[in-house]
Design a protein that fits this description.
two-stranded antiparallel sheet, 229 residues, 11-stranded antiparallel β-sheet, 5 helices, alpha+beta
Amino acid sequence: MSIVEQYLPISRTGHIVKAGPAKIRELLWDHARRTADGYESKNAISVSAASEVATDLESALRFLDPLVEGLYPTRQLILETQRTGWTRVFSNNLSFAGLPSRGAFLTKQLKTESVFFMLQPHLRWGTKSTSGCEPGAIQFVHYVRGEKQRVIELVYDGTWKFSESGEPFPFEHTEKYNAKNKAERFTREMLIDLLAHLKLYPFEDDFYKVDSRHVARGITLNVHRRALL
């Protein structure tokens, strides 16, 4: 198992933005500061400047501990990738991390493009029909300057629901979107293949540049009295 795969669920959802890490750090730090200013209890909030956190991938991912639930992430990690000019953004928020809206914010401000992806396995607890489950979701969202250009998603909400919008990429296998079994219309393999055609490999360790020359940097939003997992 790769290092990235060991850090689920934070590694199976996120943004990869066509911009340098320095520009993204500055923008995310400013957004975190303005987020903190918006809290009613301002004295309970502090935001760190973007700091160096690690020179290896595993230590960088550990920076995201602990995971939190709530409106905002308390830690964000920015890693340079092997895709020249593209940067991966991680978040430690279980609720917020799954929302692709950050792609709209980043690409609008930076006047660039990004890809949001989610690969949430569908897990059922028990065998009875009344058993609970962790709903599955596979999503791909391509943003350009704040606007969604292409969306493909398969989400479980009691039943599997598939939807897509925007102009398909020429390398998509669009015939599969009409599969009789909805769960087969957009699969893990199809998402990975789609990302690979864009030269993006977020689930592979060597996709990330983390060493003494490419130091991982992070932003911390300290929210006191917030429940931590």
